[in-house]
Amino acid sequence: MNSIPTTALGLAEHGLPVLPLRADKRPFGNCRACEDLSCGGRPNMATPGPCACPWPCHGWAAATTDPTVLASPQWMAAWRRARAIGYHPGGAGVTVVDLDSPAAVGWARTTLPPTVTVATTRGEHWIYRGAMRSVNAVRAGVDIKSAMSYARWLGPGTGTLTELPNVVRALAEKKPTVARSAPRAVAVPAPAGGGACRHRSPAYLERGIAMAEQRITDAPSAVHATVYRTFLAVLSAHGRCGCLTDSHIGRLFTAAQAKGESPRHCTDAWTNATTALGM
User: Fold this and answer.
1) DSSP 215-261
2) Cβ atoms within 10 A of the Cβ of 116, count?
3) Cβ 149 vs Cβ 88: under 8 Å
4) φ, ψ for residue 262, nearest 5 deg
5) Of 151, 186, 208, 272, which residue is most buried, by most CB within 10 angstroms?
6) How far is residue 42's CA from residue 227's CA, in Å, rounded to a whole number?
7) How would you classify residue 37: left for phi > 0, otherwise alpha for psi between -120 and 50, otherwise beta?
């Protein structure tokens, strides 16, 4: 008998926003727009505001404590297929320091104050009271999962929950590692008509890329959605005439990663934008 739905409902009753995870630890993507996570697992794919999708899609944004939602037919179908429980740490007011190797665990034991610890397959989760922005790869084998992120529920752990220390907050101030190579330039057909392309003006294209970089850099929240919408806007304006180069796309990826996006998320957002535009 699958005890995951019962456990998830119990966690939600105690204020932990939960979501079902597949065997590969990824969230489900069950609606047509999100089938097989073609949306990248993030909310607000194309428009601002909450996602209206009734299925347990969109990664961390699907996590909920609402018993009506959790008991809906769509969600119960996902829970029956689930192989693990995910939760949104930031939504529960906590931060998970994900230590993914013995070396990372050793670093934490000599650097971080004691708190609740949970054993994982390759290391430990150290959980603190207090939310912050999530950042991957703050150092070797260490990710911070809190706002706009999800973690796998592996049990209550041991120890006493302590306040989020400044040493963890300071880790998020360091820029994450940027991918060394830019993605490939977009290969799409030139506009119909064969006329001169206005985007080939260096000033016009430079202004567009600079504005896109600034939009991502200035995003106070909803970084995933902002990155996607910005990529979509750039591709809409410059993607069909062959103007974009590796350098232009690399600048956008660099801006996104400086806000905490991983290279994989950047690639997913770019792919989803090109798909949405039929490129």
Assistant:
1) HHHT--S-HHHHHHHHHHHHHHHHTTTT---HHHHHHHHHHHHHTT-
2) 18
3) yes
4) -85, 160
5) 151
6) 11
7) left
pTM over 0.70: no
- DSSP helix/strand/coil, 51: coil
- Contact 22/56 with Cβ under 8 angstroms? no
Q: Please, which residues bridge with residue 272 across strands?
A: none
Q: How far is CA 228 from the centre of its chain?
A: 11
SS3 26: coil
Instruction: Give, in degrees to the nearest 5, the angle at Cα 170 between 168 and 175.
Output: 115
Task: Convert 94-141 into a string of H (helix), E (strand) and C (coil).
Answer: EEEEEECCHHHHHHHHHHCCCCEEEECCCCEEEEEECCCECEEEEECC
The pair phi, psi for residue 220, each rounded to 5°, is -80, -20
Q: Which residues contact residue 41 at a Cβ distance below 8 angstroms, ignoring those fewer than 6 apart?
A: 26, 27, 29, 34, 57, 58, 59, 268
Confidence of residue 75 (pLDDT cuts 50, 70, 90): confident
pLDDT over 90 at 112, yes or no: yes
User: Which structure tokens are listed for 82?
Assistant: 């689930």
User: Are 86 and 17 a contacting pair, CB within 8 Å?
Assistant: no
Residues forming a β-bridge with 146: 148
Concatenated DSSP letters for 160-213? --EEPPHHHHHHTTSPPPPPSSPPPPP--PPPTT-PPPGGGSHHHHHHHHHHHH
pLDDT in tens, 154-210: 999 999 999 999 999 998 875 444 444 444 444 433 333 344 455 556 677 777 888
